[in-house]
Amino acid sequence: MRRVDAVFWGVLAAVFLAGLALTEVMANEYYFNAMYVILQATIMAVAWNILGGFTGYVNFGSAGFFALGAYTSIVLDKALGLPLPFLILGAALMCGLMGLGVGYLTLRLKGVYFAIATLAMAIVLETFVNNWSYVGGARGVYLLTPEKHLWFKSYIQMLFVAMLGLALGCIAISRYLNASRLGRGLAAIRDDEVAAECAGVPTLRLKLVSTTLMGAMMGVAGAPYPFFVTFVDPLSAFNLFVAVNSIAMPMIGGTAHWLGPVIGALLVGTAQEIITVNVSSELNVLLVGVMLVVFITLAPQGIVGLAQKYWKRRRG
Amino acid sequence: MDLFSNAIVAGILLGAFYAAVAVGLAITFGQLDIVNIAHPAFVIVGSYCTWIVNSRLGLDPVLAGVLLTPFFFVAGAAIYRIYYAAFERTGQESLSGLAFFFGVMFIIEVVLILVYGVDYRLVTAGYIGDTIEIGYVGIPYRMLVPCLVATALTLGVWLYLSRTFMGRAILAVAQDRLALQLMGADPVRIKQFAFGLAIATTAIAGALLIIIGPVEPSVGRVYIGRAFAIVVLGGMGSIPGMIVAALILGVVETLVGTFMGPSWAPAVAFGVLLLTLAIRPSGLFGRQ
């Protein structure tokens, strides 16, 4: 194992253990709520970046994938009463298939069509859910928080630890992808798709792999959401804010590197929690939009890009 | 039969209005290759400006929309300047440019909510509320007036693009940018003018939207699908194709709304869009 790898896995294990330790020492549930929201945003940002940052295709329909994950887990819970890990698996499968389908339909065309198709997918899904009374339709659906929560003190603590594990898993996958042969193929597509095709990169197949992976990860982020909020309606699940966040966070952090979306999500997510509590949630929403536009116009490489530039200059 | 013929007529009226919403996008997305996903958000801004002018000064909403066009033109030209400097010049438009307009759309919506709240706003004019009856088909004026104004707007833009010097220059920049440059014309200036023109049409489209019904900030989202579906189905930048596509969408949407329930209507546009992309991405009138 290379030293960098050892450090990476060490940090990952340390973060997970620290999360477990927190559930023992910290009693205030608010902090677990806040951290859950930030971790959820981290998974969404990492997932978006697999397609947006590594491959260069924009997904506007993140909220659609997220909500599909949430509603898949509602249906599986209602119909079969499966435990949480199976709900997450089911949501990953469903959203992965959705990613594959949308990708298969539009990725042979120009990238723009894929972006618009993802937006279309989100609205078509929302209309279906609005008209499907089994999952509550437009009125929404209430869920009971399950009684059992393993050895944790409360259900939210268990959800937090589950989300932490999932987020770390997604980060590991994204890091592996970034450095692997597959990731280099994706980067070739991003930089010049025609050249990549001519050089023998199986572009369509690689693009489909990355949309499927992106969809599955977003489904994973959405699956525990119904149990976190206990009330889900189409308006909150398909919220445009989810889509904006999952674009803004990688763009602010930096899209080319696997660390970019993680940094972006942690920074922006923490700032959002602080602003929502201390100022107002409307201002928080506006701030993300403004930061997104400012960053992509003035610093398109994001924070990671700025840092890399700074280090290069210092080394001479 | 009664219901059916009423739905067809209402669909045609609605379709003509959709053409006015999409005509600006046909210029930016179809001709200039700028994926202005914020286009419907500008239409909503047009509606709100019309509402302000109408409620403060008591001007007729259509007149208000027309008076607003110069301001929208300037705003559009300025936005294109930013877009060009930040993305087009550096070749970043495919990823960052898209995200830029997405961000602009989001900011417009949130600012409108922050300033005016999520209440529905409406305009007043003498003709809103009246209906003319022809046989068993009823035509409300709040649909007829937008239909007529929208038709005038769409045909005006079409004539402008195909008959005038500047219009042909816009078509030329879409076809071959380099050749235009070799002729001594500045493609950036032409594109800036065209983008301004496209945003100017949203002022009128916004005025028509708020005549048809009350408007709140998030209404724009449904129009993203409608506008893009119309432009793609119409064959990317072909104005006659776009008019046909708008009428088709208006009629299909009204039929679905009448016979399946209005809550299904938003899915129609996006369904049409997905189908077009999957089956015939070059659209009805597109060049293959």
Structural overview:
The complex is a heterodimer of chains A (316) and B (288). With 316 residues, chain A is mainly alpha-helical. Chain A has one domain. Helices cover 79% and strands 1% of the residues of chain A. Chain A is built from 15 helices and two strands. Chain A has a two-stranded antiparallel sheet. Chain B has 288 residues and is mainly α. Chain B is built from eleven helices and two strands; from the N terminus they run ααααββααααααα. In chain B, strands 1-2 form a two-stranded antiparallel sheet. In chain B, strand 1 and strand 2 form a beta hairpin. Chain B is globular and about 60 Å long. The interface between A and B is large, with 44 and 43 residues.
Short structural description:
The complex is a heterodimer of chains A (316) and B (288). Chain A is mainly α and 316 residues long. Helix content of chain A is 79%, strand content 1%.
Shape descriptor of chain B reads globular
Overall 3D form of chain A:
globular
Query: What share of residues are in beta strands of chain B?
Result: under 5%
Order of strands across the main sheet of chain A: 1-2
Query: How large is the radius of gyration of chain B?
Result: 19 Å
Helix content of chain B: over 70%
Number of strands of chain B: 2
Largest contact between chains: A-B, 44 and 43 residues
Provide keyphrases for this structure.
heterodimer, A: 316 residues, mainly alpha, two-stranded antiparallel sheet, 15 helices, B: 288 residues, 11 helices, 76% helix, 3% strand, globular
Write the layout of secondary structure elements.
The complex is a heterodimer of chains A (316) and B (288).
Chain A: H1 3-25, H2 29-55, H3 62-80, H4 84-106, H5 111-130, E1 141-142, H6 155-179, H7 181-191, H8 193-198, H9 203-222, H10 225-229, E2 231-232, H11 234-237, H12 240-253, H13 259-278, H14 281-298, H15 302-315
Antiparallel strand pairs in A: 1-2
Helix pairs in contact in A: 1-6, 2-6, 2-9, 2-12, 2-13, 3-4, 3-5, 3-9, 3-12, 4-5, 4-9, 6-7, 7-9, 12-13, 12-14, 12-15, 13-14
Chain B: H1 2-31, H2 39-57, H3 61-88, H4 93-116, E1 131-134, E2 137-140, H5 141-163, H6 165-175, H7 177-182, H8 187-212, H9 220-233, H10 239-260, H11 265-279
Antiparallel strand pairs in B: 1-2
